[in-house]
């Protein structure tokens, strides 16, 4: 009589984990190449007026006296033509700011507020938002 052979539970769990890891690695390694032609500058605006590949946003999308949050970057325009960039991570507890209202950058976790130049307007945060370099190239705002 043959006994039923059962693999150890740990081997099944480890095998499933390795399979999931291999699937994730394969998904991450797929070729994601920019679709912009090599002759086009990464900051050049597209014919539709949308920011080109590599651009964070268009200058016209950032209101004077306010700003926008693009991914992990906050871009403000405190005065006409002056653009500033900051990390979206609040220095108080590491939450991401999520709104810009009435000239203030707002963190939802503990209600810290920052001015459009990144300085603390209202705590509990004691440090300003970390500055991130942004530059204007044509009608686009790019990192760096």
UniProtKB/TrEMBL annotation:
Q: Which SUPFAM superfamilies match?
A: ISP domain (SSF50022)
Question: Compositional bias of type Low complexity: which residue ranges?
Answer: 31-56
Q: Which Pfam families match?
A: Rieske (PF00355)
Q: Where is the Rieske domain?
A: 54-143
Give the GO cellular component terms, alphabetically: membrane
Can the keyword rRNA-binding be found in this entry's annotation?
A: no
Write the signal peptide boundaries: 1-26
Gene Ontology molecular-function annotations: 2 iron, 2 sulfur cluster binding; metal ion binding; monooxygenase activity; oxidoreductase activity, acting on paired donors, with incorporation or reduction of molecular oxygen
Sorted alphabetically, the keyword list is: 2Fe-2S, Disulfide bond, Iron, Iron-sulfur, Metal-binding, Signal
Required co-factors = [2Fe-2S] cluster
Query: Where are the annotated segments for Disordered?
Result: 31-57
The organism's superkingdom is given as Bacteria
Keyword Calcium in the entry? The reply is no
List the InterPro entries.
Answer: Rieske_2Fe-2S (IPR017941), Rieske_2Fe-2S_sf (IPR036922), Rieske_Fe-S_prot (IPR014349), Rieske_Fe-S_prot_C (IPR005805), TAT_signal (IPR006311)
What is the role of the protein in this entry?
Iron-sulfur subunit of the cytochrome bc1 complex, an essential component of the respiratory electron transport chain required for ATP synthesis. The bc1 complex catalyzes the oxidation of menaquinol and the reduction of cytochrome c in the respiratory chain. The bc1 complex operates through a Q-cycle mechanism that couples electron transfer to generation of the proton gradient that drives ATP synthesis.
Q: Report what the protein is called.
A: Cytochrome bc1 complex Rieske iron-sulfur subunit
Q: Which organism is it from?
A: Mycolicibacterium hodleri
